[in-house]
Amino acid sequence: MRRRTLGNTALVVTALLTLTGLGVAIANAATTDTATSSECADVFLTTDPAGDAAGKLCTAVEADGTAVSGVALTFTPSAACTSKVMLRVSGVDPAGAEFGQVAEVACGSGAASASFTPVKAIAPDTFLCGTLLADRFTAAQACVALS
Questions:
Q1: How many whole angstroms separate alpha carbon 122 and alpha carbon 73?
Q2: Distance in angstroms (rounded) separating the CA atoms of residues 146 and 64
Q3: Do 98 and 128 share a domain, yes or no?
């Protein structure tokens, strides 16, 4: 009788572990894996001394394939910046229409940054681009490819 009970217990434990493992596998398959991709571009002065390096513009996109969760644009100046700059995000939606959003942000001691959620998805094999628009700086653009 004792041997039979241990055998039944082993079968029950094996079945529970199998079901638990299957449940974990299904739960893992149901979660989305968003990833953050980023690109940066050099920014240059347009005023005297024109052409000198002025910092970096970076575009970071949080996405799962072409499904976009958010976009962050950051301008990090190499010297003190006390004015405001405009940061723009743009791209193409799945229907082929161009979109864009602009934010005017203060360019303080560290960096100027803005967060966007422009669309839920973009067209496959296209780019989401961040652009810096300011009088003193070149119109730098940093684009992230999504597919």
A1: 17
A2: 9
A3: yes
Same domain, 22 and 47: no
**Pair 74, 50 in one domain:** yes
| Tokens 């638990």, located at residue | 20
pTM of the model: 0.75
Per DSSP, the three-state class of 28 is helix
Q: Is the peptide bond before 49 cis (omega within 30 degrees of 0)?
A: yes
On whether the CB atoms of residues 91 and 77 are closer than 8 A, the answer is no
What integer pLDDT is reported at residue 83 of this predicted model? 86
For 129-142, give the DSSP string. EEEEE-TTB---EE
Q: Tell me the residue type at 64.
A: D
Mean pLDDT of all residues belonging to the chain = 82
CB atoms within 10 A of CB 131: 20
